[in-house]
Amino acid sequence: MIGLSTYAYFWRGSDRVPEAMSLDDMLRDTARQGVRLFQICDYAPLADYSDEQLVALRGLADELGLTLELGTRGTGPTVLRTYLRLAVALRASLVRSMWTAGDDRPDAIETDRRLREVVPEYEEAQVTLALETYEQVTSTELVAVVRSIGSDRLGIVLDPANTVANLEHPADVTARCAPFVKNWHVKDFAFSRKDGWVGFALTSTPLGEGRLDYDGMLALLEPEARGINQVVEHWLPWQDDAETTTRLEAEWTTLTIDHLRKKNSND
Q: The pTM is what?
């Protein structure tokens, strides 16, 4: 299933723009584009939603015909239990998280311990916990922990653009993580000379215009057969003004959705 993330609305939902979109606005815009999945990722206010607010959010998603997924950061049992509770309330079948978050960078032994404490609760609730590929932890380390625990409710969110900063090639990361992938953040990327010539900037592009080997990843992952949802994100740098930035963000989203639909004819 093709989906959008709060990261596809990074600028349109920020305080930096006038009349910023609310979470409800993002859901409505997702449905307007004919997309059936929305991942509420790193949206801090969600953790403080009351029961009434959660019921209203789930009701809006039902009204719009949207499936929900959630995203948080860290492997601490407290945060993972909080998001499991939210997932159950919102009937979200997946929670994306990260091995590291801020200053919390546990080693593999501590991460394994934390996950073994919480994963059985995810199994009982039939919610999948998936850790995203990031530059702070190598994909080899990530795969080793997930494989060691060996739960069908623990997997990986694949985003090989993130691992470039750790000098891991996207093709290598994809091949290594493929058996454990539960969710796919689709974000094309490109390098450009910083200020014309000094150094490089790594930013995203509309899908199909950058360095991501989407076709190769699609063939390897077989997302439709395996039930791996493809969630659109962007790394769009701030342009010179809010109007230009938000317009370009919306255009990138539309272009990426169109590209995905052409490549995934059944969605």
A: 0.95
